[in-house]
Amino acid sequence: MKAPLSVLFLFTSLGCKAHGWNDRSMVYKFDDIKPSANLTWTPCFDGFTCSRLEVPLDYSNKSVGTTSIAFLKLAGKNATAESPSIIVNPGGPGGSGIDLLLSNQALASLAFGEQYNIVSYDPRGVNNSGPSLDCFSGNAEARTAFNRLHRTGVTNISSASFEEQYYSSSIYGEWCNDAVKKESPHGFYVTTPAVARDLLTFIEAEAELAGQAPSDAKLWLYGISYGTVVGATFASMFPDRIGRMILDGIVDAEQYYDNAWSVNVAQMDEAMGTFSSFCHAAGPEKCSFWGPTPANIIARMDKVILQLQNHPVPISNAQSRGLPALVTYSDLKALFVTSLYVPAASFPVMADILHQLERGNASALVGMFDGQDATFDSGHVIQCADSYRRNKLTSIKEFKSYAEYTVSKSKYIGDVYPIFVDSILCRSFRPQLPDSMVVQGEHLSRPIGLDRPTSFPILITSNTIDPITPLNSARTTSSRFPGSILLLQEAVGVSCSRISSSKPSAIRV
Known about the structure:
alpha/beta, 2 domains, 10-stranded mixed β-sheet, two-stranded antiparallel sheet, 15 helices, 12 strands, disordered N terminus, signal
């Protein structure tokens, strides 16, 4: 599922290794690599190898043509020709696995061990992989105008805001449909079932390269957030091709394909509640918003929220001759939702901002909500193509019910979550996809899940308090895959963003 650009779903950001430009045999961009139906690895990015694997646009009709998928490999120091590759599937949709692995080379080796090769990739439609789609065809002015019309702030701040978000959402789909028609005829061929088939193509090509039978190839995958949808889809389609699979921070795949995101708000307020207890326990020297009791911290935070809801704060910047700004309730809510992704890193920052707000200084929140505007279309395009034929969020009645539900379940995040995820954008998409690319009840008797075990049990992991990919989703997904193992850690945060560390408990379900 989507996250703000400042969030990495798996690793703490270590920064990219500096590129050395002296080795002329080294490649530093995927455009310089010729796509091939065979898995051909080229030295790249100082210490990695890269490949652009040519795959069919439509596996059920190969006459449609091909596209290429960008793969990046970090060879294990102790890996052999028989060593499997662990594929790290990024979050999103729209997350770049290439960027993720490039930024976290040292941590990746530490996490998985030197006896394995570590591979990541850009799924279809993302960054270095095709097919690409720019819904606004490079027209930055049109994109800005749409964001101004549509992203009016917290969804239920007023009936006008709610209705503006609903009715303006159709504009986005119309622009995307038109861009496909005129410029990118296969721009919607980026669905998750197609990505699952791309992964099968990859492991079979890798097996053939190693002199092994492609039909025996097995997938070793570590999927994070949206990557768990890819993993669950692959396991449903190819249950006998599972080598090892870890799904961490579970997105309920059935709800994802229905474009129904209400389950995600289940633990948001529980996670926000830990802010007050952690702040109090840390003490005034480590938490600037400290209070004598957790209840005191909550009460003061609620007062700050109410104050900003009723009285936006103007920032003139007159003395500096900078741009004027207006800090709103929506900016504060954007702070809350982004902070919940990585509480360990974000809660201290949130405490500082709340401390400043309590003293009348709102400058740290300038542009916080606008900073969530999407500048790339890949995430929405994948999300909307995936919900083709199953979208349960199309009418204003359904949108209202969804918004009311999220508010009822989360006092702190519920009112901003609908525009944060922005799943209402899908209502005007018209992908016209072949059956092979979509998950639907008519196509598969049970879209996600099995009535028998996979070739190797899937390990499903979750924090006990996960504000974005809640524990219930992990339990539900585990129930759909017989023999799977559910591993819990008593911690707060998304995926591997662990705040507390205690002995985890393994539960067979």
